[in-house]
Amino acid sequence: MGADEDDALYVLTAVLLTPARFPAVLGDDYPEACAALGLEPYAEGYGLVFGQDGDGARWTVATDDVTLVACAIAAWDCGMEYDLSPDDRTVAAALPGWPLTLAVSAPGVPSPHDPPPEAEDGTGWARVLVPPDTEVWGPAQRRLGADEIAAQWSAWRGQVEVEPSAPSGPGGGDGGETPVRRVLRELAGYLEEPPPPGRVRSAFASGEARVLRADGPGWSMVARTDDIAFLLLDDEPGEVTPVGRGPELPGLLAGLDAIAARPAHGA
């Protein structure tokens, strides 16, 4: 894949890039995530396939065969084998590098490395995809943190005791608007003026509940519709702020769930 189209791509893993499910490290919403990869925000989305070529170079292949990639991910999640080989006709882009950190590599090829800088036209790559630096704090790291809380909700929820009181948070003086109040106000604004696709996403949780992920300028939220919310802020490096349900949060979460992007089949 890449300059030599005869090179095989040894597939390591894959993710979906759709309005309802995309690597949040790439952006606050689906169009922003697509733009980070130079892709058009196609309504049906893409599958992102991560692999290595015969020389061990990292490649990210975007395919518009979303169903193929979704089936592969479902099979792998169940511990089953699945041969993920996108048809060349479905490939929307082949990008050098990986935007995510992968802990696996293809057997029998050199260790993962960036492709050589030379391109067919001699101009070199405009950009090689690289994972975000985990030693600093910024929007990408904030979104990654929120994704981690969503994936490990029970563990994070068990660490806090939040009274069902009105929301509050750090950073506000007397009469001032706290970071939490600002985020809640901006979330409520999404109900008045729908945000870009993927800015609010809803996923299955236990019982009748849903897990919500929402992002905005400088903040990320993860919440369960039947419980509390957690906020992460660019201005509060590494801090996770719990928000009690109070009188406002239940209705806000219900409203956000109603406008949220959802995976296919209501998952």
Main attributes?
2 domains, 267 residues, 20% strand, 4-stranded antiparallel β-sheet, 5-stranded antiparallel β-sheet, alpha+beta
Main beta-sheet strand count, sense and barrel state: 5 strands, antiparallel
Shape: elongated
Could you list the spans in which at least 5 consecutive residues all have pLDDT below 50? Answer: 1-6, 168-175
The number of strands is: 9
Strand order of the largest sheet: 5-6-7-8-9
What amount of the residues lies in strands? 15-25%
> How far is the N terminus from the C terminus?
33 Å
How many structural domains can be distinguished in the coordinates? 2
Based on secondary structure, the structural category is alpha+beta
- Please work out how many helical segments DSSP would assign: 6
The multimeric state of the shown protein is single chain
